[in-house]
Design brief:
two-stranded parallel ribbon; single chain; 2 helices; alpha/beta; about 30% helix; elongated; about 50 residues
Amino acid sequence: MTSVAEHTEADGKMDSHVMYQVKGTAGPVHHADTAVAVTNATFTRDAKV
């Protein structure tokens, strides 16, 4: 199972805290094996790691 999170950011950057939230809830809350983040923004360097 895959958990998908859509994210819209006004300032144009998706920070690492969003990635931690997606990954942190994918398995325990949604029982997913894979977490996917979809955004209309860009990813910060920390979010890409």
